[in-house]
Specification:
With 390 residues, this protein is an alpha/beta fold. The chain has 13 helices and 18 strands. 45% of the residues lie in helices and 17% in strands. It has a seven-stranded mixed beta sheet, sandwiched between helices. Strands 5-6-7 form a three-stranded antiparallel beta sheet. Helix 4 (66-82) packs across helix 6. It is globular and about 65 Å long. The termini are far apart.
Length: 390
């Protein structure tokens, strides 16, 4: 009897091994050899775009047109760069799954934040304008008035104030905004560096200190909450500045042991390591803010308020043509091709992540505790008409 059991077990084992050998090859996609290892493409964005196209993730993950998917790719790329060590450990099918799940999460956060008000009735606007001769206060005040938004404009007049007096006054107003509970939008127009508002030599750590001091005044014992603020930065390297500002706020929050509950929402006029452009002459207007004014002040009819979705939508479309030409199929833009890389700006929207968001993203992407997650998530600037996640 004992031998018979052993014989049956041996037969079952042999049959199981045969089945595994038969099934295992079928688990690999038929086109697996044509799917490149995405790790080899992470040295630059364009290489990543081309490699990602061979994985056909877009249609399988979120329903969107090729041109919409094309605008999501930088957000995916820069997130993966931050987690490159983990990404290197993934197989090619796992890479595809990682990118797909990240895309789903970003699209969902876009939908959740679409109605965040940037300019609207009762929402204060505090603008810092570089001292350029043609950069006029009216590009802020007239638009703010049209939307019922109280506006304060800071622009240095050296006949009235020293640079030190001017920056101290501006940072004091920023601190008061952070200390309040009323929603407000900070607009920064002018020249910029990755860690500095260039003309006024305001370091991102100084701006972070003002924001943290205000939030701490409001709730001394609670984590810093800056969720009522939106910061719009139209300058060179504005995405770098937004990222560095967020990191400085987090560092200062942790230093005081309170931590950070929420960073501000931030809109940058250019993607990482890029220069911004402006129209010169008598009226000096940065290209991004020009799009805001043209589409939502000059053009009629005006909406009641401007939301994050408006920045996703028409403003991004307005900006995307710089440095690119569209490829039209029928009545729709199928994709874009680059004709002048140095002219591309690609605005970016950064939204704060809650602890719950981070936990979900960590679980979704199977990221262990050693992998740090951003408190600001780059959700790109894909047009609002993006369909629902499958």
């Amino acid at each position: 009897m004992h031998r018979r059991r052993l014989y049956i077990s041996a037969c079952v084992l042999a049959a199981t091994l045969a089945l595994v050998q038969t099934v295992a090859p079928a688990q690999q996609p038929a086109d697996a050899p044509s799917r490149p290892d995405l790790n080899a493409s992470l040295d630059n964005l364009e290489a990543f775009r081309q490699a990602l196209g061979l994985h056909e993730i877009g249609n399988a993950t979120v329903s969107m047109s090729p041109s919409q998917w094309q605008r999501l790719e930088p957000s995916l790329y820069y997130f993966i760069l931050e987690h490159r060590a983990h990404f290197r450990s993934l197989t090619i099918p796992q890479q595809t799954e990682f990118v797909g799940r990240l895309a789903e999460f970003i699209v969902r956060k876009r939908k959740e934040t679409d109605n965040t008000v940037v300019i609207g009735p009762g929402r204060s606007i505090v603008a810092l304008l570089g001292p350029e001769r043609g950069l006029q206060r009216q590009i802020i005040t007239t638009m703010a008035a049209a939307y019922g938004a109280p506006a304060s404009v800071f622009k240095l007049d050296e006949t009235q104030q020293t640079l030190a007096q001017f920056t101290a006054e501006y940072l004091a107003v920023v601190e008061r905004l952070a200390a309040g509970v009323q929603p407000a939008t900070l607009v920064i127009l002018g020249h910029g560096l990755p860690e500095e508002i260039q003309e006024y030599k305001i370091q991102c750590r100084e701006l972070a200190a003002a924001l943290c001091a205000g939030a701490r005044t409001r709730s001394p014992d609670d984590p810093l909450d800056l969720s009522h603020l939106v910061i719009v930065i139209d300058s060179c390297f504005s995405a770098n500045f937004a990222i560095n500002l967020g990191a400085a706020i987090e560092e200062q929050g942790q230093r005081h042991r309170s931590g950070v509950f929420s960073l501000p929402t931030m809109i940058a006029s250019v993607n990482r390591d890029r220069e911004a452009f402006a129209k010169g002459g008598e009226l000096f207007v940065p290209r991004f803010w020009e799009a805001v004014v043209q589409l939502y002040y000059v053009n009629q009819p005006r909406p009641r308020q401007l939301t994050l979705g408006d920045f996703f939508d028409r403003i991004d479309n307005y900006m995307y043509g710089y440095g690119r030409l569209p490829r039209v199929e029928g009545r729709h833009v199928a994709a874009y091709r680059v004709v002048n890389p140095s002219d591309i700006q690609d605005p970016v929207v950064f939204v704060p992540l809650t602890l719950q968001d981070k936990a979900e993203l960590r679980s979704r992407l199977n990221l262990g505790p050693p992998e740090p997650l951003p408190s600001l998530l780059d959700i790109g600037s894909v047009p609002r008409m993006m369909p629902h996640v499958n």
